[in-house]
Protein 1
Amino acid sequence: MGILEKYKAVRQQTEDICKPLQVEDYVVQPIVDVSPPKWHLGHTTWFFETFVLKPNVTGYIEFNPDYNFVFNSYYETVGARVVRTDRGNLSRPGVDDVYRYRAYVNEAMEAFLAGEISEELNAIVLIGLNHEQQHQELLTTDIKYILGHNPLLPAYDDSTTIAPYEAVAPEWIDMPADIYEIGYAGDEFCFDNELGRHKVYLQDYNICSALVTNKEFMEFMQDGGYKDFRHWHSEGWDWVNNNNVQAPMYWHLMDGRWHHYTMQGLKPVDVNAPLCHVSFYEAAAFAAWKGMRLPTEFEWEAASEHFEWGSRWEWTDSAYLPYPGFRKAEGAIGEYNGKFMVSQMVLRGASEVTSQGHSRNTYRNFFHPQLRWQYTGIRLAK
């Protein structure tokens, strides 16, 4: 697929995600970590206008000069921006205006991409498309949080049904002590935090072929897992008590049975389904309760060809740090990953709402340990 066709497909996918929404859904920001859908639509458009069109198209006229302030996310190099917590206060520009903005930038980008562009510009466009695919996953999870915290628990899309999961017997994969190579080695797109392929020595270990299921986590809950400090990191124990955490996000105990909010509305928890929406603190506590641990990101990558992955982002026991030789690019693009390499944990894999073609076994996702609105799960190691 050429760069123009890929551009059109990715941009359309973002708008397709929003089709089931009502106009009021576009503006809601329940918590700081969740951005309004309207902001995602504008921000992903701003990226192409700011980094491709304005510097490279002679005579290009901005759709609205105020949008740099409204839709910049964290790029200090590009200028001032709306505080993240205030994105939900942006009743203006309206939803129709944001879609007009997208159409305006799309027209200019499609004309630009129809001609010959340099390898350097092609690389920036690819970053923009992968950036938008990241936002497609964030957009979906943010929509789930918005609707899943609406008192009516409305369905995002009730036209689809979820088939029940069949119970799968987990197996333990033996990984011998050895030197393993970690990091991206191909010639397709990857993010800079995957580069710097390097060798690591790993002691022999075992990693589970299957993700932890809802049934297994229910056993942890029934055994008082949320009430026993022995399983928790100190910060995690404070988090549990300060927030009165008693179950994974979206779980509700109704008439003695656990239900959870899904994109199809409130449904009984499928006990055989892989666990979802837990924090690193919960993942580590469950592993400790089992007498096991979470894999490091290096153990996960080294073993990834031996198990299926991609239905949940999987917490690892690795802090988000640079690989050997990592260097941030100059300018705003250099702010993309490196500035976040502190106080966050690495997740590996992908999830059921990751955009098609936007996953690989070297991909390094990262979140603060208390966050769980993403599709996060647990794979055990020992």
Protein 2
Amino acid sequence: MSSATPVPARKVGLLSASALGVGGMMGAGLYTLLGLAATTTGPWLPMAFLIAGFAAVFSVYSYAKMGAAFPSSGGPANFILKQFGHSIVSGGVNVFQYISYLIATALYAAGFSEYVGALFGTTFPGWTSRLIGPAVIVVFAAINVLGSQLVGKAETYIVAVELVILVGFMVFGFFRADFSNITVASSAGVSFIGILTASGLLYVTYQGFGVVANASGAMARPKKELPRAMFIGLAIVAAIYLTVSTLVVLLLPQAQILADSGHVLADAGQAVLGRLGFVLVSGAAILATASAVNATIFAASNIGGFLAQQKQLPQAFQRKLAGKIPVSLIISAVVIIVLVAFFPLSAVGQMTSLAFLFVYAIVSLGHLKLRAQTGARAWPLVTAIVINAVMFVALLIDAIRTGPAASWIVLIVALLGSFAYAWIRSRRAQLAPPDPE
């Protein structure tokens, strides 16, 4: 997921918009969450990706209709404002959406740390593994201060390298596939609830479709081309995810998938091409997660500044230290470092997916109010709301049952705190004296 992929200033056509969607969706989420999802699916991992992709279709429909009707670069934050106006609901959802981006950045930083640790193994002392994630946050926060234009331009090349490595992995992988890895024993204990839980976790791997909605303002014919581009991008990414996850199940025994869940794709690369495959896939994962950290911390900082302009966050988020360093970037980086330092990869993975499932459900719910303006049908929006809600509940129950208690408690506190903060700001605005004429 790379939700802040730069949008070109020139007019965006169908092909480039589709490529933008592929680049936005197919990123760090695949490397960081695939192994974690396998812990509840066993050999049914591809089914979880398929269900998640099917579920994403309805949210893509909602975003496509909203983006076509209201072309802008503001993305979901603007959607929420269009749907709910300047209210406690929009304030609470948008503040929580900002927090969601911080949690997502923590996920990618944790994934970066996992793959660096797997690649270098015992080369690093044990204590350094706790510093890698925070260090990458500091580095990319500094890059954003100095100017992230170069990294933004490199995004296209990073996605191209990822695609080449993944396509090579898929082609050579089928020659090494071992169907004996799929046994009755490996399916023991797997239930539909487990697969549904994994689908909720993997749903966020399709999250980048919002990038195409952000590009709608640069399209010549957004009403026609935006929906097509989003669905083309979704179809391509879903096909890649299904193929890769199928190969992982066929290449690795279930015990190894569970043992190395944080970097299981690198293990699959090793099963195909030995040490070279391990290094290539690890390198692709490091590039993807680093790129996602840069893009998402940039997006979080911008959202913080935007919400401050809309008076939904303190005005301090608009300020700059020494005339150059955005306060919103500093706050974002500090919160992300705390998340990376105190929560393992599995915890931030669950938190990220839960957060975006909630946001997508609210966007589709608010969309129902604007159907006359967007031309959307009601049943896909209602389906999106129901699917997101069901996945949210299933994943939350799993987080309560299996994850660290602090992770889901922090998420719920963040959600309730966002709405409490919006209510307090609303009350202060009502009590404030009117500006003098």
Protein 3
Amino acid sequence: MRIAVIGAGSWGTAVACLAAQKHGTVLWARRPEVADRINEERRNEQYLPGAEIPYSLTATSDLEAAVKDAELIVMGVPSHGFREVLARAAAVVPAGAAILSLSKGIEQGTLMRMTEVTAEELPDHDPGIIGVLSGPNLAREVIAGQPAATVIAMTDTDRARSLQEVFMSPSFRVYTNTDVTGCEIAGALKNVMAIAAGMARGLGFGDNTLATLLTRALAELTRLGVAMGGEPLTFAGLAGMGDLIATCVSSQSRNNRVGVELGKGRSLDEIISEMNMVAEGVKTTRAVLDLAVGHGIEMPIANQVGRVLYEGARPRDVVLALMTRVAKSES
């Protein structure tokens, strides 16, 4: 199988390395110097430091060349640049190529999921072979060969099963799911909750606080996800609870790191200026709140994260606001 991975960030690079173990794989990098370094030094130190990139993986900064003969296109571009990159490649995307999104965000303005953006930019493409790969997948651990699992969500079950083989290895287990909406929404919403978890850690709160936060966060993302058409069980699986736990407890999570620094009293602008990778939750929170309003769903944690990110509220004050809400049934 000929595979193109579009986006040479940490996760895009890790996924490309997985695919290159069995199949001819090309990794597209926006900047030529990143592609050159991968090809010459077998390293992508800016985004995935310490990882050895296999010689079977080729990098390029030529988007059309990467895509034109691919049987599988993996989109590892952040949500704010996803449409622009896909639109540039649209004319040469092969008609039968499966397309998997790695992006865990919502497009600003349109409030579209990335598979919806893909279907809009490729209107003649079979929607059954447009899907998402999502789960508790921290790039450094996956590339190091630590045991992990993920989900490929796609409505064409035969194609999804064929893609399992692409990424499966003794240390990386791949499941399939037909609930594209649920898997995609879970991936986007957990980034918002990871900022909240990080703020709790930055404020010095302990495990009781984190356990409470994760439990209620899962309830929030499930409510909105089901309202948008997702299946309830999806949110208890790898793309839901699994990804939520990994992102909310790991110091490797960019969104969690943003929350930690906010909890310590630093400004958002200062935190973002020091990061060389995108924390999707910073932009996604606004879209999530708009979706919640549109679907009539109450999301108190996401709302308080939005107050900190966009209104300058203090993390300690929003924790107090959450804890003093009117008491109600858990269900």
